[in-house]
Amino acid sequence: YSMNLLHASLLVSSGNIEKATILADKLEVIEPGNIDTLVLKSMIAKASGDKKAKSEILKQIIEKDPTNVDANVELANDQMMRKNFKLANTYYGKSLEKEPNNEQALLGYGQSAYYNDDLKKARTSLEKLIEVNPENSFGWAYLGKLEGDDENYAVATRHIEKALKLDPYYYDYWVDYGRYLYYQGKFDDAEKAWTKAISIEPDNFYAYIYRSALYDEQKRFADALNDYKKIIEVKPEYYYAYESIGILAWHEKKYDEARKAFLSAYKYNKDNISYPMM
Question: Helix count (H) and strand count (E) of the chain?
């Protein structure tokens, strides 16, 4: 049983779902009702994109073992994707009842608590995660978010720098790093951080938003305009960028361009009366 289970798990990891399914069926015959087999079948369902089957199998596991770590973490991950942070937090908590030092559960518990605005619970879980594994970059990054939200930007910067040291090519870390630097008045360094983020994911719009606003503040209007145009290229429905393009064009007396930009902004936000007025 153990060798076949290991073999099947490796097949799932390598994407050989058909052979993994055959082995999973064989395992059910060898040891009917074994939870490890159900966990394997949930992995197969997930890899196959069969969300309904995965959910049903996970519920079977929970019925047999309410604190099963694998099942609770997977159910929690699903709820995180749905932004149901309260329920996700409950599932992660069930995992921690059985394995208090489980890294995935500690991180998820901290993240879901953070997004549920339970910051004390989030901090406790994330600090525990860092104790368990000081090289967990997500733990440092979310501790940085907590400090940033409290406007402790110097501490937030130290935390995100630790995350970046562990994972220097993670886009979100560079975006957060730029924000913390910006709020400390380190504008050149903030610009470099957002530019680095853009080099990692040029089709992600968040770093352009922050960098374009910085350029706008510094009256570097040509640079700002380039970033605003890039934003609407990758995120056409982001109407604030059209608004900014319109204002910049207006000040340059490029009225046709301004009018088109305001009309585009109005297209994506019909409730804003300022766009037709402009």
Answer: 17, 0
